[in-house]
């Protein structure tokens, strides 16, 4: 089902794709960021279907300014996104969290759970900057990642089809993977196959969805 939550400081509800039957285990999923959000969405939804069959409720949020959100992405930053995930966790009574790729940088600090193939904020930016420099070179323009990053910190940038404000660019660059006793890392090797974020187009991989759901359900049962 499609549900909604209201992020801090906003009057506009944000969407959540949910399997909610009011069960004991309630997993908040913080999605990957930017282009990876789309290449991994099918995998996450299929994982949620399997978790539902195993008796686990799950909630995949839209971050403000992404997907169907009416919020302006250029006005968001890493701190506002983390406040949004915290509000979503409170609204839906989440007991655990799964942060995926760059989404691991934004998980609520109070929840136990997992981070799947996490990357630092600098790596998120490097992927976007690399795509822009390649596109610029093909168009006959010379731009470097270093000069773009400095410009972005003061004026914002268009990266990968996303308009990012200076606070987002600066804030992401300072974000690192959290180290917490109740937070475990799920490496891609534990799921099998190549990372879905490496594919040029969104795709489906039932075996990876099986493996990711099984990893989480077994951890919840232990």
TrEMBL record:
Q: Which domain of life is it from?
A: Bacteria
Entry protein name: Alpha/beta hydrolase
Query: What organism is the protein native to?
Result: Alteriqipengyuania halimionae
